[in-house]
Prior knowledge:
Shape: elongated
Number of helices: 5
Structural class: mainly alpha
Oligomer: single chain
Order of helices and strands: HHHHH
Distance between the termini: 38 Å
Amino acid sequence: MLDNDPLWKLRHALAGLALALIASVLLAAMLGAFVGDLFGDSYHRRVAIYAGLLVYVLIGAGVLFVKVAQHEKRPLTPGRVLLWTASLWAWPLLLAGRR
């Protein structure tokens, strides 16, 4: 029964992507605060940078899921989660590599 379920087949990719998104939200918050402080100590500037980073990562999650998820069959490990996280931040390279 589970062999026919498409979500069951994508479980490693979905779990990896979810954990990578959680890590990326935290990274975006730290990076947004750091970059915002470089350009002046303005709360609105930090929030704008954080929001921009979140949009960037969410678009990356969509691109990564569409391009890579159906091929992901390996079990989830901490190293794989780090790879998913790095891939979320480097997703434009995935699109550039396909051309």
